[in-house]
Amino acid sequence: MKKIRVVVLMGGKSPEHEISVISGQQVVRELNKKKYEVLPVVISKTGLIWELTSPETILSLTNLISYKGTGEEIELVSKKEISGVGSLGKKADVVFIAMHGPFGEDGTIQGMMELAGIPYTGSGVTASAIGMDKIIFRKIMKAEGLLVPRFVVLYKEEKDIFGQVEKLGKPPYFVKPHNQGSSVGASIARNRKELAKAVKLSFKYSDKVLVDEYIKGVELTCGVIGNEKPISLPVCEIVPKNEFFDYESKYKESGAQEIIPARISKTLETETRKLADKVYKAVGARGFARVDFILRGKKLYILEINTIPGLTPMSLLPKEAKAAGISYSNLLNKIIKYALEK
Predict the structure, then answer these.
(1) Enclosing domain of residue 173
(2) How far apart are CA 7 and CA 39, in angstroms?
(3) pTM
(4) Which of 165, 195, 180 is nearest to 304 (CA)?
(5) Peptide bond before 261: cis, by omega within 30 degrees of 0?
(6) Predicted confidence band at 255 (pLDDT cuts at 50, 70, 90)?
(7) HSE of 9 in the Cβ direction (CA atoms, 13 Å)?
(8) Burial status of residue 9 (CB atoms within 10 A of its CB: 0-12, 13-18, 19 or more)
(9) Per the domain annotation, does 8 fall within a domain?
(10) Does residue 254 have a pLDDT over 60?
(11) How many domains does the chain have?
């Protein structure tokens, strides 16, 4: 039987460049080599250079997080520069997008694939853009009658930050860029001094900042897979060792305790899974995604949807799939199958 040619696309122009490569590395490792011809492609941090490399080269990379914030490109032993998306159509039956954050998860790369007529994994342009823009996502959730935290939006030209934020009531507040993932640029502000610092940090990554009321509760997340008839996965409870599930907690083995199934009632588990399905359908997601919640009392607040959740060894979606009896390799088979159904 002829192998399916899968280009695994990773890296890119995003603060999550290294996490993307780790996700891509895990995808390359777990794809069934008897079924797929695996072609890893790493996009540079500038977005200008696309390099085709070998699975062996990708799997040999170590200590990738050390490149974060250095501006240095990850060195590939074996590489061949290609002319971007134009070359992918000749090489790929399907592109597995293992990219996170801006220019990877926001509809940009998906639009390029659409233009070139190349099948690709995950959500389409519109759902990807909605999922990445937390402000638009929140507005859609409110229009659907779903519960989200109270929030205000700050712009760089904002003159009265404190006046705007104090509409939410007394601190603490949760501050984050409107279009980043992996908790990049996110922090908690307990007073005016910390608020000014948190807003300044978020503006390093975005021209708009989302400030939420701080909701103390149980952090839950629920993966969803499928197209027209999506299936929710077992709910995961996250107990971060830091104050919230920040970048460090997400990508260090000891950064958080992840409990699957979550320590909630069966009724609440069912409600969370149904709500994850509803969010998934509301934005038009496809393939796979993960929906994050905060549970306070009996109220489930929707935080965001991740249309390309992490696929690293520490990531939540593969762990939830495993709890549902779906191995990592089989999860990838399903994601590719969903892509080819489009």
Answers:
(1) 151-213
(2) 5
(3) 0.90
(4) 180
(5) yes
(6) low
(7) 33
(8) buried
(9) yes
(10) no
(11) 3
